[in-house]
């Protein structure tokens, strides 16, 4: 009899421990970015939005990015596996590669982890939270059209072209620039990176001495283009538009080095990513797309984005 009572007590204790573990697990979610916040102010804002929302809701948010940056696909896969092993119930992720992350994310879902996408999609079903990049890029292209004569030579700096964000921004820019009769003489990737954009822009300038404008698919690349154009002593001759509306881009616009940027809402992305992945983990249905919006940043409103 005593042995049976002890067994029942042990089983009851096990249930309590398991229940406590489940409760703790429900309070853990991850934001897995495609870069770390210290390397890119855009991701710093996304991370801040996510952690602020976690604090508001009493949720433990791990906001992490691959150590090797935007191209560190294996590092991001390792982060997914690590967060699943730590017992998160939800992952909001910006995939570094649209295809390579699929097996890890499918495995996460198979283990009951809710998965949605922030800023970038993967080639798999799931809610996307972020900017509708094609019309947003077209907005930036239209600003070039409004300030550069038809028939002028222009260039596009692409992001990582294996990702949908890079593809869609390039598509939106291309469609906008061609629609108003501008001549796209170069469309080259610089992988979201400032140093690569500087080098790529130098080559474009050498091959195209009459270049009148550059659309850069993010602000990091736009600032690299600014350096190349400054070194060529053509800042007064070449119209430069970026994308993200980062504080350093706003400062460059106010200084007259850049002309505009298409601002996303990265803080909102982080907040909405955490809020909605918790809803998904709780069994709620979500729409396929949640658009966080975009606005053109020029000298008239750049001070608001510093």
Measured between the Cα atoms of the first and last residue, the distance is 73 Å
- Name the CATH superfamily classification of the largest domain: Response regulator
Query: What can be said about the biggest beta sheet?
Result: 6 strands, parallel
> What's the CATH architecture of the largest domain?
3-Layer(aba) Sandwich
Give start-end ranges of low-pLDDT stretches. Answer: 1-26
Task: Name the average pLDDT.
Answer: 91
How many separate helices?
10
Strand order of the largest sheet: 2-1-3-4-5-11
What structural class should be given to the helix and strand makeup? alpha/beta
How many beta-strand segments? 12
Rg (C-alpha, Å): 23 Å
Number of domains: 2
Describe this structure in words.
With 306 residues, the protein is of the alpha/beta class. The protein has 2 domains: 153 residues, Response regulator (Rossmann fold); 131 residues, Rossmann fold, CATH 3.40.50. The protein is built from 10 helices and 12 strands. The strands form 2 sheets. The chain has a 6-stranded parallel β-sheet, sandwiched between helices. A 6-stranded mixed β-sheet has the order 7-6-8-9-10-12, sandwiched between helices. Strand 1, helix 2 and strand 2 form a beta-alpha-beta unit. Helix 2 crosses helix 10, helix 5 packs parallel to helix 6 and helix 7 crosses helix 8. The N terminus is likely disordered.
How are the secondary structure elements laid out?
Layout: H1 2-26, E1 28-32, H2 41-57, E2 60-64, H3 73-85, E3 90-93, H4 102-110, E4 114-118, E5 128-130, H5 133-145, E6 153-158, H6 164-179, E7 183-189, H7 194-207, E8 211-216, H8 219-231, E9 239-244, H9 247-255, E10 260-263, H10 266-281, E11 289-291, E12 295-297
Parallel strand pairs: 1-2, 1-3, 3-4, 4-5, 5-11, 6-7, 6-8, 8-9, 9-10
Antiparallel strand pairs: 10-12
Helix pairs in contact: 2-10, 5-6, 7-8
């Amino acid at each position: 009899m005593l042995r049976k009572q002890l067994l029942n007590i042990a089983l009851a204790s096990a249930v309590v421990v398991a229940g406590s573990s489940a409760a703790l697990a429900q309070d853990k979610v991850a934001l897995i970015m495609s870069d770390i916040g210290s390397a890119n102010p855009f991701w710093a804002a996304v991370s801040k939005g996510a952690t602020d929302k976690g604090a508001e809701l009493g949720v433990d948010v791990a906001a992490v990015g691959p150590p090797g940056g935007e191209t560190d696909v294996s590092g991001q896969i390792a982060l997914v596996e690590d967060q699943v092993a730590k017992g998160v119930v939800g992952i909001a992720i910006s995939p570094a590669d649209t295809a390579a992350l699929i097996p890890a994310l499918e495995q996460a879902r198979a283990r009951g982890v809710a998965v949605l996408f922030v800023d970038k999609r993967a080639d798999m079903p799931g809610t996307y939270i972020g900017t509708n990049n094609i019309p947003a890029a077209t907005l930036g292209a239209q600003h070039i059209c409004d300030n550069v004569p038809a028939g002028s030579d222009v260039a596009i700096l692409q992001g990582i072209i294996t990702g949908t964000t890079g593809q869609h921004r390039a598509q939106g820019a291309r469609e906008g620039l061609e629609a108003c009769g501008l001549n796209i003489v170069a469309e080259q990737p610089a992988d979201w990176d400032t140093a690569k954009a500087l080098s790529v822009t130098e080559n474009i300038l050498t091959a195209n001495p009459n270049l009148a404008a550059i659309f850069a698919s993010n602000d990091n690349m736009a600032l690299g283009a600014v350096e190349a154009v400054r070194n060529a002593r053509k800042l007064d001759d070449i119209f430069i538009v970026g994308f993200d509306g980062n504080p350093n881009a706003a400062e460059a616009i106010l200084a007259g080095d850049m002309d505009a940027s298409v601002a996303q809402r990265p803080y909102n992305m982080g907040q909405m990513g955490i809020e909605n992945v918790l809803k998904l983990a709780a069994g709620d249905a979500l729409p396929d797309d949640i658009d966080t919006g975009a606005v053109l940043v020029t000298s008239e409103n750049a001070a608001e984005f510093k």
